[in-house]
Amino acid sequence: MSERQLFGTDGIRGVANVHPMTPELALRLGRAITFVAKRNAKRSGGNRQVRVVIGKDTRLSGYMLETALAAGICAMGGRVMLCGPLPTPGVANIAVSMRADAGVVISASHNPYDDNGIKLFGPDGFKLDDALEHEIERLLDGDALDRAKVTGSSVGSAYRVDDAQGRYVVYCKSTFPTRLSLDGIRVVVDAAHGAAYKVAPAVFEELGARVDRLGVKPNGTNINKSGALHPSAMAHEVRKRGAQLGIALDGDADRVIVVDERGQEVDGDVIMALCARRKLAARTLARKTLVATVMSNLGLERALARDGGKLVRTPVGDRYVVEAMRKGGYNLGGEQSGHLIFLEHATTGDGIVAALQLLALLVESGRPMSELAEGAMERVPQVLVSEKMPSRRAIDALPKTSKAIAALERSLGKEGRVVVRWSGTEPKLRVMIEGEDEKRIARQARELVEVARGELA
Predict the structure, then answer these.
(1) Residue 109 is a catalytic residue
(2) Catalytic residue among 109, 226, 296, 337
(3) Looking at the domain that runs over 382-456, which CATH code has it been given?
(4) How is domain 12-162 classified at the CATH fold level?
């Protein structure tokens, strides 16, 4: 393959039991993961049985894919450690703590229940890079896996890690400052009927908070029917119960949406502004730099600059944020959508850990979250339009669209930004424009979408 065909910005994803999310491909993928892990173990001087951690969210199809992946790993002589329902960052953490050679998460994150996905982590707890995913795709198409199969006593085995959830709860609690407590704090936690339905409430309760639970009764088909995608129910409960904070997770709990005590949303940009400015004041923000994507608001960049910090931007996707953080030696990054990475604590976005860092700030300040959020940054009006298109081509291969983008950028100057990109997980064109006049940029975004539609027809 000249480029990756199966892996998008966040693993493989699609409708469950339809290519590529079939048990047949999952079985072969399990074999490929083990093949690569075996080779890497030998290169490092090891000659032991390869071990692979598997976790999942609560989708009905998780059973099907988990079984197929485990069979593929065993067929190549690997040992499978089954964690059951566990947040994506929990799987990454368990893979490191148990000295596994790889971690696999079966989840389609925020997608509806009939979709599913597979994300891969290395032994260091970080998502695999593009080159390694590309190599795995080549293995799926070739015959090397068939030649490397094992028989007899070399066939692998599987066992369940019964305390996986408890291990992750302990890890999450360890990221909260030991000098602080959540005693007297009331929070509403909506786990989206997803992977964190048990662990999320437990973390906050064990730190002393009074927790009102939502989205903690998964049935295989109700994942993401509440939580980060539908925070209104959480916001209502916050106002009704007089809670100080509302915390809504998505299906695999790698991102978080927060509401203040009035039920108003505090998005990822505001959370990053609060945490980055706090770290700047404490001189703990590495290289005085925050890493965010091209979608983060211009107001975040300006707020950091006023405090002597700077913003480094990446393409959309928390994997690219993490890559930039590791390359540049930075320790804080994230996305407007609520993927937040505290690299001193976690190797990937972690909604629970992010919420704990925000709660630490709230407890230390003694101020309500609404007051903290209002002073964090001054948002520049931003419009986002997402549209399915009749076909898909690279943006720079669309001359009319590229010309329209350039004209818009000239007209906005330093007072705004234009970002046009394809979704990494859906066949949609996304247009984001920032500028001082919201009505004007809304009109410009629609006009730009129509230019692209005409060129792609």
Answers:
(1) yes
(2) 109
(3) 3.30.310.50
(4) Alpha-D-Glucose-1,6-Bisphosphate; Chain A, domain 3 (3.40.120)
